[in-house]
Amino acid sequence: SSELTQDPAVSVALGQTVRITCQGDSLKNYYATWYQQKPGQAPVLVIYGKNNRPSGIPDRFSGSSSGNTASLTITGAQAEDEADYYCNSRDSSGNHWVFGGGTKLTVL
Amino acid sequence: QVQLQESGPGLVKPSETLSLTCTVSGGSISSYYWSWIRQPPGKGLEWIGYIYYSGSTNYNPSLKSRVTISVDTSKNQFSLKLSSVTAADTAVYYCARERRDDIRGLYYFDFWGQGTLVTVSS
Lengths: 108, 122
Known about the structure:
The structure holds two protein chains of two kinds.
Chain A: E1 5-6, E2 9-12, E3 18-23, E4 33-37, E5 44-47, E6 61-66, E7 69-74, E8 83-90, E9 97-99, E10 103-107
Parallel strand pairs in A: 2-10
Antiparallel strand pairs in A: 1-3, 3-7, 4-5, 4-8, 6-7, 8-9, 8-10
Chain B: E1 3-7, E2 11-12, E3 18-25, E4 33-39, E5 46-52, E6 57-59, E7 67-72, E8 77-82, E9 91-101, E10 106-112, E11 116-120
Parallel strand pairs in B: 2-11
Antiparallel strand pairs in B: 1-3, 3-8, 4-5, 4-9, 5-6, 7-8, 9-10, 9-11
């Protein structure tokens, strides 16, 4: 079982704001990283560190954290944001990597 | 732009060894950590292990007894071997580059290969 817990599915109306969460003890010590994965494609990095976006990622994606919970927020969700989202961090020992189980985002 | 490409057999028999290679282009394999990550059909991502360009490794404890990751800096490649495979090892296997900044506490995978499906079946 994963040491990072995500809701399996979330939905959002087009243009509205949605928050995807990730919980785990390791998040007290390490930032969560967020990846977007569309069907048949490799994951794409969307947020890393406190709230950093790689070049090319729209600024409607943002990250935050509090205690053992990290969040990915999409402000003004677009149809192309429909995808699976995975959180990831170092584990509590700091020696390995762990992934959340993923959240399927549906844009209505 | 760094690119990663996985290669290897798409079909492996049960009890045999799965072998994959990741070729890195557009940048050097040196000074970075490189990981293997897999995704069973319809399921989530699982980290398998990483290797530093110098050869040091670390593996997922759940797979450690069956995994070997190696690096060939002269070819800008790193490889995965997973022994004694079963149907549960059927997955898309990805290679990825790790970025680490211990001072700022930043750890993430910035470049991924497209993935290769490996099916374990007789």
